[in-house]
Amino acid sequence: MFPTVRDIVALDPVRHGQPRVVAGESGLDRPVRWVHAAEVPDIATLLRGGELVLTTGIGLPADDAGIRAFIADLDEVGVAGLVVELGRRYTGSVPKVMVAAAQRRGMPLVELRRTTPFVRITEAVHALIVDAQLTELRATEEIHQRFTELSVEGAEPAEVVHQAATLAGCPVVLENLARQVLAYDTAGDSAELLLDGWEQHSRRIQPGGRTAYDADAGWLVTTVGARGQDWGRLLARWAGEGPPPTRLSILLERAASTLALGRLIRRDAEGLEHQIHRTLLTALLDHARPVDEVALRARALGVPLDRRHLVGVVVRDRDEESGVDAARVRDLAEAVSQALREATLAGLAGPLDDHAVGALVALPTAADDDRSLAAFAAALHRVRGESAPAVVVAAGSRVEALRDARRSLVEAQQVAAAARHGRRDVPVFRLPHVGLAGLLHLLRDEPRLQTFVERELGELLAYDARHPRDRLLGTLRAYLDSGRNKSAAAAAAHLSRPAFYERLARIERILDADLDAVDTCLSLHVALLALDAVRESKPKP
Q1: How many CB atoms lie within 10 A of CB 94?
Q2: d(CA 232, CA 177)
Q3: Purine catabolism PurC-like domain location, by residue (predicted)?
Q4: First-to-last CA distance in the chain?
């Protein structure tokens, strides 16, 4: 933004004075914020740093100690350099003590061997500074304009990073908090060299603050996030001399703001979309709105459902022991929506309750339901990743009209609930997959099934309630699960064979049943499965 001492020495008004750098050549690239002419020895008290001081030396101390103190005061305040015109105080050259003091501190010291009006120098330098500031202002305005347009357009992260690299003229990388690259632009450099071993390299870049420059690594870094939730870093590799200019920091921060805003907008839009989808699905299940209105609103969302082959789908957690997790269900709803898009299927998708996400899928043709559902399940697995918690994907029967969609959705809910403890190698559960346990689960709220359980097991359940330390239901379960193999059942129950036999005899007396009879054991086994289904259900009024 500011010209350097070297730039100023090359200006025509300064060259007119036949300048010669006599000390501090290593500091010639110091930026000059202002030019100040002064003839008093205590001028340092009036300066703020970054000034180029012009003097004829008339008011400077005559002794060596005073000269050293003068140079020390200027250096401590941070002046960019000192220019001394010869002829009025010093002839031939500046004092050697001044040269030595400036050289020791690395402060540029320039002598003008020809009389030069200082006003011409200050005018030229200040014009240069103002022009640089205007250029910087225009560049900042361009940055603001460019990223505002990207925000309005809803640009993807890759486009934002590309624009940042184009404006910065250097490679830019967007990474998440795990140091994985989300987007990058090499600005013409080699991508292989830029990204090879990125995670290890990135972890060594540790600047302080939300936006800071790591001089050792050569990267300017800013944090990406909003609403107190940081989710990544944006990095620009600076290959210039010294720290990067302020404009680059502004550019990187503006790009990071655009990325954070874009993520919030996409999440809010997806959240609103899921809310509308959920409202329409609930309306179908609860008959809360006329079917024609649901069809109209779905069509306005870009999801045509009328005159389509439809199938209800439910995706739910296998494990509900972890309790209610709204964020997990919301993420699952997003994954279901994305999987529908990847499988090129249209449909409504949204949370149904604290554990399940529902979808009403419009099929391309009547004969494509199995293939379409398999493609959806495969896409859902890819979207969620290998490490995601296990879920059950269940589908109801295909229906030909939106008025019948509720039946397919309810069936999918029942199948999903019944399949939670079933096989794990079935990509999409349908009604034929649920088996006896699934059938009993579907009938768990049926009073006749509950009456059957009480008739078969009621006496044994009452005994266990009276004898909590000597419960026998587990013994019966082990016996029936082993196929009536008493030796194997005793081993599974961690009991000796005599003790196990004695417990079986007590069960026979309590139930007044013959446990060697096949039909009796079959009835008891069905009752146990039904008992499990009834206990899993929530009481309904």
Answers
A1: 23
A2: 5
A3: 7-129
A4: 75
